[in-house]
């Protein structure tokens, strides 16, 4: 089958996926559509929950393994939509629909790429294709559930919209619940330990705090106070103020190290919600990266999270579409971005495999 025909079928698959609601945890029907697509090409598929996965035909346990991964769940459409989010249609070269950009274009492009290599012999790496669910909410039945039953993964491409440039590093995330204490009292009485006033100094400390290590790819760790809550009555001084702190972690630190530092140094109680969303990266001199660079692609560090955070191997985020369109109203991807994406994926892997 020619690459042009494979590309046409991938675009038709994306239109079908858009037409099927697939909110996180509700991706069973898009999973069925992906199964049908792969089986049309004679691919032997396997399924765990709504995670659809397959191995290249000549899988050899003695070889290292490359994972191709993207997700088929979506967020819910926001209130600013003026188009039907499930009406997949093309206007002026743009394919509109919920999940078209994040990450349907990447997913169908990787599926087409996998089909292209499925029956090829004498590859340097095995290939596993995994179309997974629950990415948007980092759910229990996401790629995190699938990884333990897969063979060892040596390197991965995670399909997210990057304009087909290579995100060779991705920031991790730790969300902290912080508490600033004080003395509760009636507002009419003196109180020199007002938790709200105490919070002023804490907020200033958080605003000015910086971590020592700066990453070449990802820059500084970014700490941001995003929520504040206190009190429930006008004449009562609250006993504490609750804060939420969003910390985007570079590849110089583990999430545990960030938690240890803040719990030791912050002037308030800091409790991490989870430490599992670590930063990720790939050696800039990795052969996979070199293959992309040889095609004129650029490298950069990504501030946004993806399923890379679940992987312990080296990985690169790469895919058609533009991250700034993700979760936007009237989401779209250019048709020619998908065509280019499939072509670049295939050429990159040809140079690597």
Q: Can you give a write-up of this model?
A:
It is a single chain. The protein is of the alpha+beta class and 353 residues long. It folds into two domains: 3-170 and 279-352, Zn peptidases (Aminopeptidase); 172-273, Alpha-Beta Plaits (2-Layer Sandwich). Helices cover 29% and strands 25% of the residues. The chain has eight helices and 18 strands. It has helices spanning 3-19, 28-40, 100-118, 143-146, 195-208, 255-265, 287-293, 335-352; strands at residues 45-48, 51-55, 65-71, 89-91, 94-96, 126-132, 155-158, 166-170, 172-181, 185-186, 222-229, 236-237, 240-249, 269-272, 280-281, 299-302, 314-317, 332-334. Strands 1-2-6-3-7-17 form a six-stranded mixed β-sheet. It has a four-stranded antiparallel β-sheet with strand order 11-13-9-14. Strands 4-5-18 form a three-stranded antiparallel β-sheet. Strand 1 (45-48) and strand 2 (51-55) form a beta hairpin. Helix 1 (3-19) packs antiparallel against helix 3, helix 1 (3-19) packs across helix 8 (335-352) and helix 7 (287-293) crosses helix 8. The longest helix is centred in the N-terminal third of the chain and has 19 residues, at 100-118. The model has no long low-confidence stretch (mean pLDDT 97). InterPro entries: Bact_exopeptidase_dim_dom (IPR036264), Peptidase_M20 (IPR002933), Peptidase_M20_dimer (IPR011650), Peptidase_M20A (IPR050072). It comes from Flagellimonas lutimaris. Keywords: Cobalt, Hydrolase, Metal-binding. Residues 168-264 form the Peptidase M20 dimerisation domain. This is M20/M25/M40 family metallo-hydrolase.
């Amino acid at each position: 089958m020619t690459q042009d025909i494979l590309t046409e079928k991938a675009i038709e698959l994306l239109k079908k996926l858009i037409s099927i609601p697939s909110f996180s945890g509700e991706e069973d029907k898009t999973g069925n559509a992906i199964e049908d697509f792969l089986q049309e090409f004679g691919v032997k598929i396997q399924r765990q929950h709504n995670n659809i996965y397959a191995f290249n035909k000549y899988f050899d346990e003695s070889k290292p393994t490359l994972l191709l991964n993207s997700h088929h769940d979506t967020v819910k459409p926001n209130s600013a939509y003026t188009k039907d989010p499930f009406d997949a249609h093309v206007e002026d070269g743009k394919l509109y629909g919920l999940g078209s950009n994040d990450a349907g274009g990447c997913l169908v492009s990787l599926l087409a790429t996998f089909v292209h290599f499925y029956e090829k012999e004498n590859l340097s790496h095995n290939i596993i294709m995994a179309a997974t669910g629950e990415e948007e909410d980092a759910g229990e039945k996401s790629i995190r559930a699938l990884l333990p039953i897969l063979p060892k993964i040596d390197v991965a491409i995670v399909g997210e919209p990057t304009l087909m440039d290579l995100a060779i590093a991705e920031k991790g995330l730790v969300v902290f619940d912080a508490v600033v204490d004080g003395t509760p009292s009636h507002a009419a009485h003196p109180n020199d330990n007002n938790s709200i006033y105490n919070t002023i100094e804490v907020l200033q400390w958080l605003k000015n705090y910086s971590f020592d290590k700066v990453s070449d790819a990802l820059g500084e760790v970014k700490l941001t106070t995003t929520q504040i809550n206190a009190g429930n009555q006008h004449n009562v001084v609250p006993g504490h103020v609750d804060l939420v702190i969003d910390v985007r972690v570079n590849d110089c630190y583990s999430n545990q190290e960030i938690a240890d530092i803040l719990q030791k140094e912050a002037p308030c109680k800091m409790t991490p919600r989870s430490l599992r969303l670590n930063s990720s990266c790939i050696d800039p001199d990795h052969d996979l990266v070199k293959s992309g660079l040889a095609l004129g692609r650029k490298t950069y560090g990504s501030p946004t999270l993806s399923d890379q955070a679940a992987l312990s191997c080296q990985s690169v985020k790469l895919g058609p579409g533009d991250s700034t369109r993700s979760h936007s109203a009237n989401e779209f991807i250019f048709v020619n971005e998908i065509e280019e994406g499939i072509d670049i994926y295939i050429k990159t892997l040809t140079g690597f495999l």
